[in-house]
Structure formats: structure tokens, C-alpha cells
Amino acid sequence: MDSLFWILFVIAVLLSSTTTIIILYNRSRFTSLRSSPSTRSSSSSSSYRSSQLPSGTLGWPFLGETLEFISRAYSDHPESFVDKRRCMYGKVFKSHIFGTPTIVSTDAEVSKIVLQSDAKAFVPSYPKSLTELMGKSSILLINGILQRRIHGLIGAFFKSPHLKAQITRDMQNYVQKSMESWTDDQPIYIQDETKNIAFQVLVKALISLDPGDEMEFLKKQFQEFISGLMSLPINIPGSQLYRSLQAKKKMVKLVQKVIESKRDHDGGNFSTTVPKDVIDVLLNSTTTSDHQQYLTDDLIADNMIDMMIPGEDSVPVLMTLAIKYISDCPSALQQLTEENMKLKRLKDQLGEPLSWSDYLSLPFTQNVITETLRMGNIIIGVMRKAVKDIEIKGHLIPKGWCFFAYIRSVHLDESNYDWPYQFNPWRWQDNKDISNCNFTPFGGGQRLCPGLDLARLEASIFLHHFVTQFRWVAEEDTVVNFPTVRMKRRMPVWVKRRSDP
Fold first, then answer.
1. Binding site per annotation, positions
2. Which family does it belong to (predicted)?
3. Which residues are annotated as a binding site for heme?
4. Is residue 299 part of a domain?
5. Closest CA to 148 of 449, 446, 453
């Protein structure tokens, strides 16, 4: 079914008149770029005249290389499409995928420059169905001052000790409640359990909604919503995109009710209270900023829905992959368990609860999470569109072309990491720098994921409680890498409660 869906998706994209116009326009542009170097920049600067399009091929007319990209993406080594061309053309090459000419980069330095560029050079590039669902006011799509402002507000809140303490309490409660129901007479599906836990934690941080009927309603509508993120871009009654848009409207209505309740409760004055959630942060901003007209209730509500996606996707997958990798590596599991059991015994002796700083202070646990991010590549890459001709390290990226920073190949490049396909959390010991451009699991630049610290915290808490409370045997399962990273069988494990003192 997945293969059929993607074939239909590609055909729909390629047959759309808009895409055809873009293809023909950029092909003619490509020809002119090759034949006339002086047209590479509107300013005709010497730097553009000395640069050139990267080597590569645009593939078949209209189809480009999309079908081969997708077929390799479903394999055990989805990076083989990119790696094959990297060997032929170099770390930066041209291709034609998903209906647009594309510069693909496995050069970490080139990708870093693009990701750190502002909206005067590059803007986000997403499939049409996703942009329709997100809306023009989504933090994923807006640019300039407004994007930086919202991103900065949310990022600062996510880094605050107050929120980390709240996340820790909520995560502990939801994890414990989930694990109390586990029995040894049936398999536990780790992917399902982590999705349920992470979604509730994130929704609480965003809109202060507790488990109950409204949370269940939100979950149901959210499942319908995300089903349309990579659907056919057809918005008619009965289509998936239409159903997803209707689901988002229902969720937005619920969030708007939360906003109205907060306004009534606080009398519109949010600046005198400590923010409990992201809505409080943004509402407070509208009362103190000269640009309050930008942060309307509709904009805030829309972005709350978009920001729920990590609770359904990236954070649960991080936890699930960590369980898979340590299940397949007994020595890593042993060291991880010993480290967490030591902390648990110490806190039990002191009669103190674990704090967020306790969880993040465990060095080997953090190494396991870092290595899971490197190997798992929950985000395989980041796409941008050039708004003008750009030259980077001698490579020309023409206006209107897509730039695809393919992170997965960088993380699995043997020139960057020894035995890159081997799970080896010890490679990160001795405080090895994880801030270099060869390790970018959360993207980079102005759109760096603001929740990266919280993702690590949630994974640390889940791993601690799992390894200190259970022994387990994992059933055979495989990683599916496209269109999103997930476990094929949802990671079934058979658990047995520990009797360790």
C-alpha cells in the first residue's frame, strides 16, 4: 500500500500543471545558465561567473530521478541513491526529484551555510499537501522577523528550568502509569507506548491539557490530520487532504477555546504570571510587543497544532530506536542499566525524587541517545528553496531550485565516523564535540528544532524507567525509513519486572 501511495503521489505531482510549468521554466533556465555564465547573477559579479552548476543529471523528462529516489528510500540503505551519485559527481550534485530541479548536498559545510542563511537567500520547501495543511502562518513556513520572534520565544521557554521540571514530572507520571499496565503474558509495543506518552507530555507543555475526553478527542483528530501530511494534493470532499483539513479545524477550535479560557481567567494580563505553557508565552508576547497584531489567536492556535507533530513522530521514534539498538547490543545495555541503577539506588537512599538535571547528568545514557540520533536519522534531510542565485564554495544554486541537505549520508559517512553502521555509543565518550557540522540531527541555523533539549530529556526519562524496572526480550523488527522513520512491527518486546533490590 505504501508503494502504491507513493507512485500515485508522484504521478499526481508530475501531472499537475503548476509542476509542469516549473519544470519547463527551470529546464530552460538550466540551459541558459550553461550557455551564458554572465546570466548566473543579476549583478553579474565575478564570484557567480567563476561558479558553476554541480555535476549530475536531471534524469527523465518530467519524472526526473524521483522514482529511483523513492525505490531506494524504501530499502535497507535509503542513502544508496545519494551515495551512488556522490561517488560519481562529488559531495554536491544536481538532480531532479519530486517535481523540481534540486541541488543535493552531502557536504556538511555547504549544508551548514545554507541552513544558517536567512530568508533573503533561502526559504523552506515542502510538498503542496503539507503547506496547505500547515497554512501560511505556520512557524515552518513563515520567514523574517516574525519567524525569528516566535522561534526565539518558544526556544527560550523550552530551555527554561521551570518547563524542564514540569516535563520531568509529567513524563514520570505518564511513563509510570503506562508501565504499571504492562504484563508478561503479551508483547508490549514500544512504538505505540512512546507515542501515547510523548503526545500527552507535549500537549500539556503546549496548551496545559490533561488526559481526559478532550485529550482523546484531540488524539483522534490529530491522527486524521497527520494522515494528510504526505497525501495527494487534492482538496475535495472525500479526499485525505480534505479530511485532514477538517480535522485541523476541529483541533484549532479546541485550542481557541483554551485561549479564550485563559483570557477570561487572567483578565488578559499574562505578564504578571509565570507561563505554564507555550500559549501563555505567546499571549504574553502579544501584550508586551509592538508587533502584537502578528500574533493573533488564530495564528497561535494554528501553530499549536503544527507543534504537536514531534509528540507523534520524532520524540517517540527516538525512544523506540534507542530500545531497538540497545536490545541488539548487550554490552551497551549492560552499561546503560548499571549507570541508571546506580542513580536510582542513590536517590532512593537519599529519599529524593529524580530531577531533570539528574537524568541529563548520566554520560553513557546521553551517549546512547546521541548515537541513536546519528544512526536513526529521524530527519533524513532538510529542504530549502533558493530565492536568488547563490554561490557556495564554487557551487551555483540557481534561483527557484530546491536545495536538499541530505543529513543521513553525512551521519553514515565513514570519513566522518568509523564503522558508521555499527551502533557504538562509546564513540561519543571523552566529551567528543557533538556541535560540529557533521552531526545535525535537529537541523540547524535559525530553524534549529527548539525542542532538542526536551527530546533528550524525555528519552532519558523513558530509558531510565525502562531499564531499571524491566528485563526484556525484543522480537525481530526492522526500521522503515520512508516516508517517515518508524518500526515495521511497532517494536514488540516481552517484558519481565526486575526483582533487583
1. 449
2. Belongs to the cytochrome P450 family.
3. 449
4. yes
5. 446
